[in-house]
């Protein structure tokens, strides 16, 4: 099936750039708008963009992603993460909206499934949950795609942070009591395009790298797979307090047969390591 044309918002971000790359590779007609092109919370500007471009689908990658900053600036984050998705969903085209594991409280024993009760513990999580609810309330066709622990060649990410710390200090402590699914944005971008092509796959989807690990386990694989020498030690969240609480459990499971499955997170890491030296040659 054809997606017709796609408008990608937040197209200057880590995920947005990979979505534009995936669309181009698959011959999907896509227009990318960065924050300076289109503020997703500006109803007039969104209406104008939709009138000009007449997209069939909007893939919303725009967000306030400063998780700690949102604790102090929740109302500013709410405008982008809460109001913006509602404005897009009310503008007419179908919306594929990206959300997060932070909508959950992180206390569940097993993996979170789509229907699990939400209960965000951070300002960022509350704003992202508001975005989901506003998309649903708009009453138009939509898919809400929760993901987690993103890393991609177009953004600052955990892989680069670990490599830089290892090179600068030779030793690093990483928390071993938060579990999640590291997700390569190039893989997620493919799933978002798949969902843009599948109008019947509405509602909530969980799309994250297959399998799970802790941040410590992720760091260990990064050092092993890049051949980076580093004295790595596990630590706990209470030794590494930050303004916003992090979920102890961010593991997302997909139970719907129509949710595109992502490759294993270790494959995501391998593909990232290959791409970081070739895509744009920026690392
Ligand atoms: N990163 C993760 O680990 C993670 C995990 C789970 C879910 N997510 C979700 O994944 C999505 C993509 O995140 P990302 O990692 O690609 O973040 P990112 O690199 O920060 O990209 C977000 C983009 O949105 C733009 N933006 C901010 N406010 C905007 C506005 N009012 N209108 C239009 N654009 C605006 C930002 O522009 P500026 O840079 O100019 O502000 C940035 O280019 C988000 O929905 C995020 O909540 C991320």
From TrEMBL:
Q: Which GO terms describe its biological process?
A: dTDP-rhamnose biosynthetic process
Short name of any one Pfam family annotated for the protein:
RmlD_sub_bind
The molecular function terms of the Gene Ontology recorded here are: dTDP-4-dehydrorhamnose reductase activity
Query: Gene Ontology terms, cellular component aspect?
Result: cytosol
The RmlD-like substrate binding domain extends over: 6-275
Q: Which InterPro entries match?
A: dTDP_dehydrorham_reduct, NAD(P)-bd_dom_sf, RmlD-like-bd
Q: What is this protein identified as?
A: Unannotated protein
Q: Which organism is it from?
A: freshwater metagenome
